Structure formats: C-alpha cells, structure tokens
C-alpha cells in the first residue's frame, strides 16, 4: 500500500489490487471485442454496393480483362492495386476492408455492360471475398480468354 499526500488530504492506493482490477477490465474488453465481431471475418456482412454517382468514374472504367481475371482470393491489396488500380470510390488504402469498382465489360462485340465489383479484405489485408452486383458481369469475367 502506498499513501500519497495531496495538500491536507492523504490517499491510499493498494497497487496490487489496482493492477488486478486493471487486468480484469482489459480481459473483459478483449473478450467483448471478439464477441461483438471486431475480429470477425468481413464475409459475414451483407454485400452492399455504393451508388455509382459517388464514384470518381461513375460511367465505369475499361479494364484489362487478363488482369481482372487474376484477381482472386488471397491476393494482397498491393497486388490488387497493381492489377486493376485503385478503387473507384473514396475508400482509401489503409485500414479499409472493402474496395469498390465500376468496370465496362464487353458483353459482345461493341456491346458494353457497366458492372460493379466489390473486394473485401481480411485482417491481413488479403482478398477474402469477391462480389459482382450482376451475375452476367461475373459470367463475362469467368469466360475463358479469347
């Protein structure tokens, strides 16, 4: 026990008790973070695509299909960036779990489809989920290269 004199008052501190209480509070906070989903996988959250008008390229970007087809689960953010560039919305790079894109994909000769694509990243900044807003966009990308 330590006694600290503050003016006319004295305060008594039992540091071992204070340390034990601090440790308990820390453990409860850690368990609560796990239970509330702080460290859960981002794939639990439903996929919601942003409104295209908030994109810096709302009409969609033409993308190299060969590079787009290389975007798969497990890629690091830097690898995704190297393949298909920065996201098309103001999402940032650090501490961001989701990137959104709007691409122009060629459905048939000179017939382009505007497609929204979303990537989710895990705690290690690796792709954990790929989502297309439209199934026909996904089908175009999954077609074998011509």
Protein architecture, described:
- The protein is an alpha+beta fold and 146 residues long.
- The protein has four helices and six strands; from the N terminus they run ββαβααβββα.
- The strands form two sheets. Strands 3-4-5-6 form a four-stranded mixed beta sheet, covered by helices on one side. It has a two-stranded antiparallel sheet with strand order 1-2.
- The radius of gyration is 25 Å and the shape is elongated.
Series of H and E elements: EEHEHHEEEH
CATH class wording of the largest domain: Alpha Beta
Radius of gyration: 25 Å
Low-confidence stretches: 25-43
Give the helix tally: 4
Adjacency order of strands in the biggest sheet: 3-4-5-6
Helical content stands at 25-40%
Report the β-strand fraction as a percent range: 25-35%
Write down how many β-strands occur, each being a DSSP E stretch of 2 or more residues.
6
Structural class: alpha+beta
Domain Outer membrane protein assembly factor BamE: 60-129
Protein name: Outer membrane protein assembly factor BamE
InterPro entries: BamE-like, BamE_dom
Organism: Methylophilus medardicus
Features:
146 residues; alpha+beta; Beta-lactamase Inhibitory Protein, Chain:B, domain 1; 4-stranded mixed sheet; 6 strands; 27% strand; elongated
Write the layout of secondary structure elements.
Elements: E1 2-6, E2 9-13, H1 15-35, E3 61-62, H2 65-70, H3 77-84, E4 98-108, E5 111-121, E6 127-132, H4 135-142
């Amino acid at each position: 026990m330590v006694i600290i004199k503050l003016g006319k008052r004295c305060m008594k501190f039992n540091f071992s008790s204070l340390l034990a209480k601090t440790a308990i509070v820390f453990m409860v906070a850690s368990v609560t973070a796990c239970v509330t989903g702080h460290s859960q996988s981002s794939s639990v959250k439903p996929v919601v695509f942003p409104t295209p008008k908030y994109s810096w390229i709302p009409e969609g970007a033409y993308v190299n299909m060969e590079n787009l087809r290389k975007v798969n689960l497990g890629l690091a953010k830097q690898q995704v960036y190297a393949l298909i560039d920065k996201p098309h919305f103001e999402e940032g790079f650090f501490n961001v779990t989701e990137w959104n894109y709007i691409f122009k994909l060629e459905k048939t000769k000179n017939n382009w489809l505007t497609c929204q694509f979303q990537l989710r990243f895990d705690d290690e900044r690796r792709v954990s989920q790929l989502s297309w807003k439209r199934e026909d966009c996904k089908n175009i990308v999954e077609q074998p290269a011509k």
